[in-house]
Fold these 2 entries.
Entry 1:
Amino acid sequence: MFSKFEEWYRDRHDYARAWKEKSSGKVFGCFCSYVPEEILVAANILPVRVLGSHEPQDVTEPHLFGMFCPFCRDVLAQGLKGRYEYLDGITLAQSCIHLRQAYRSWEQHVDQPFSYYLPHPMSVQSPAAVPYLREELENYKKAVEEFTGSKITNDDLDRGIRILNENREAMHELYKHRIGPEPKLSGKEAMWVTVSSTWIDKEEHTAEIRRVLKLIEEREMDRECGAKLMFVGSENDDIEFINMVESVGATVVVDDHCTGTRYFWNSTADDMNDRIEAIAKRYVERPACPSKDHPVRTRFPHILKLAKDFDVQGVILIQQKFCDPHEADMVPLRKYLEENDIPCLFLEFDVTVPLGPFRIRVEAFLEMVGEEDLF
Ligand code: SF4
């Protein structure tokens, strides 16, 4: 049922090359989920989230300090190794210092006709955040127009907003099938869907979700559900890891990742005269990355609500090694969840994860979650 998403997940570069050939359009690499894809889709550009490959590499040492997170080192390695050679442009929406350095090194050492650093407010709770981002998005739109040689009209923006929103709505509908005693899809299948949505043509992706939604109600799962878990933390698209967790008696039913719910959870208003302001509001008000979640930690009640709505028995807190934004949140987040009767397991990720030792810890956690269920 999910084989198309698996294929998209596995053959991401082949897909983008074929899309380019078929549509004669341009492809932009997006560093961070704060890049306003509505504007790119409005300009007939395919946004492709740049992610790592989870393979050991030896090319980033001259560019990035070893104590930068493994995710941004893995991302830069993809560029230096030429895996994204088909990109016509790249954009970073300011998120954290680590990724900014990966972006700057990529910009200098990988040949790309267009690159744009989009200043994005860190203080998204400030009343100045929307007007500030609105101006920055106007500048970005102009830069994209100059690059493509075509004006982006209000009709184009309406199309971009609609296409993104339809995909988000379809993802929400799919996630509803992860609620209840017998989720209709595994966490691995959901990860194929959510992660591939960050680089597949959104209309094609939505159509495939809609096809699945027609069939999923009748689906009989050929695996036991086991303990229902949630993943929370830094970027995570590691299929090997989720496979391991789900092979030892669990199903991952929801997440708070920037390649998961944080990416698609909220929509852009489609009834505002000022389309750029609507897009700015969407990115300011979306579930925040911890780098932007201050002075009030709005993530915590949001994560707790997800945990309760999806009835999880435990949370695996995932942190990319040396990731400062998530590291600052992990201790208070764990305390907050445990005070609300949600058991947690903390794991620190590197480019490749040590599946053996992690398996032992996950199994022990599942035993504890099971025991807690008895009381
Ligand atoms: S938020 Fe964390 S995991 Fe993501 S790029 Fe920055 S340091 Fe790395």
Note: Residues 69, 71-72, 96, 98-99, 234-235, 291, 320, 323-326 surround iron/sulfur cluster (CB under 6 Å).
Entry 2:
Amino acid sequence: MYGLTPFTLNFTLDRQPFEDNAKERALLVGISSRQDRSRPHVDEYLNELEFLADTAGAEVVSRVVQERDHKDPAWFLGSGKVREIEQIVKGGLIDLVIFDDELSPVQARNLERSIECKVIDRTELILQIFALRAQSAQAKTQVELAQLEYLLPRLTRLWTHLSKQKGGIGTKGPGETQIETDRRLVRKRIAFLKRKLREIALQHETQTKDRDAVPRLALVGYTNAGKSTLMNQLCPEAEAYAEDRLFATLDTKTRRMALNAQEVVLLSDTVGFIRKLPHRLVESFRSTLDEVRQADFLLHVIDASHEGYEEQMKVVAATLHEIGVKHDNIINVFNKIDAVGERGMLRSMQRKYPQSLFVSAKRGINLGALREAVTKHLDRDYRRCSLRTHMANYKLVGYLYKHAEILDKQYIDEDIVIEYKAHVRDLSQIDARIAALEKKKSHVA
Ligand SMILES: Nc1nc2c(ncn2[C@@H]2O[C@H](COP(=O)(O)OP(=O)(O)OP(=O)(O)O)[C@@H](O)[C@H]2O)c(=O)[nH]1
Ligand SMILES: [Mg+2]
């Protein structure tokens, strides 16, 4: 598990991914509070948790909700509720209890011992799904890093009681306990994974450095909003993996998208966000999300058919803030309008978000309007220009190919006429270079 070959961890986290087993039967646990979490909210959260459990291959058979304003530091729940769960587990063939909130290592240990059943929290469930989904070396490394960082404090607490009995076993040095050996190994592995991630990021940087001067856009949004479906529709050669599962996409995928007969942009599909996305995952996925940080602007894909779409929009905004994306260059794309039940609902959404687009990626509705909006948006920052020069002026032609997006070229007598597009930020530098290399140039607005 988790790629930890030097030793085997024999405690709660040492499990096979769910998909290796027959479906595990799960019980979900949430808490509602009078202050900030009403019962309908908790039900919605548990619906999402059920979707997560289902994505991980478990079958949810029951739910328990406790109304409680303060979490018990040792048990998370009140003792009566813990006993109730114990009874359900004993009577109901439950293999797994999943808490919607993050449990402290002590709470997880106490609950697991008392309930006598596997106990996990939302964070661990999300980490497991990411582990199952990870394909590329980068995603695998990022997920393993996040898992080990999650595991480290649990390793400490869970093994504290064992270290006394286990003293003397293993390859430890004089006076060293098993827990210290294991902690050291985990830390070593964490350091190794961080190094590996830095190397991958560096390689990625060199690969993208010479990428042409085409505008870059990134699709961001809540998981399952339809980002990959939209990418597949907009870029016919994309073949991004889309599925009615959470976190179908983990790796950023970039493809060319034609805006019209002349212009293209680079479009990136990225990992979806979710409420309470583990901070460690956000941290370790930072470099995967580089495309988001470097994009000219973002298309925020929203599942308009989801009843909690506004809360999802807030989660996306907060996560973007967390990864350090500050630019407010974002177009809201309300997707799945084909699945919005009432017509009135859609109209009120359109009134509430007038600057937004309303599309259906699956049915191909309004995608022309989306392309137009992107073109218009880009026109604020990019200028179309034209240059006529002698065709033997290879240096100048080569320079333009490298620093601008070439839209068209024509030959007139001995000359070449190039139409290009460049970011306003780069125009003065390009002009100065052209002036140095050539005399004839004419700008078309
Ligand atoms: N009804 C309807 N379903 C859609 C539409 N667009 C996408 N879907 C469905 O929504 C589900 C999720 O789509 P994806 O494209 O995988 O979503 P995603 O945002 O890439 O999800 P992650 O990669 O998990 O973050 C799939 O079952 C799609 O078929 C749409 O316009 N209408
Ligand atoms: Mg996707």
Note: Residues 134-209 form one domain.
